[in-house]
Amino acid sequence: MPMKKDIHSQWYPEAKITCACGSTFTAGSTKPEIQVEICSSCHPFFTGEMKYIDTQGRVEKFEAQRKAVAGKKYIKKKDKKKLQEKREREAEKKRPKSLKEVLMHE
Asked: Does the predicted TM-score (pTM) go above 0.85?
């Protein structure tokens, strides 16, 4: 069965791909030229270098959030429950025991 005419995008077998690092290469594409932010010449996985590719401050935002969380004091679930029970006992002590006590406080 033959392909329908005029429904497929034009194919460019030698499309020029340009990376932000300055590297260029060719590949097949439906666009004649493509701009990319990262390629195999500058990607840390291929180069072995560790560097941040930061777009819109995401790395700084993540590190600030991580530092904020690290500074918080965490309470164990068991200790949290004991603290809650202590607060409830103290609230119970302050609560009036009889109608007479309620009327005295008014």
From this structure: no
Q: Indicate the helix (H) or strand (E) that contains 6.
A: none
* 15 vs 55, higher pLDDT: 15
Which positions ≥6 away from 66 have C-beta within 8 Å? none
- 19 close to 37: Cβ distance less than 8 angstroms: yes
User: How many other C-beta atoms are found inside a 10 Å radius of the C-beta of residue 70?
Assistant: 7
Token digits of residue 105: 């406080």
Report d(CA 96, CA 70) in Å as an integer.
42
Cα atoms in the Cβ-side hemisphere of radius 13 Å centred on 11: 6
* In contact, 15 and 28? CB cutoff 8 Å: yes
| Predicted pLDDT at 13 | 93
For 19, the 3-state DSSP assignment is strand
- Distance separating alpha carbons of residues 60 and 33, to the nearest angstrom: 32
More confident residue, 71 or 103: 103
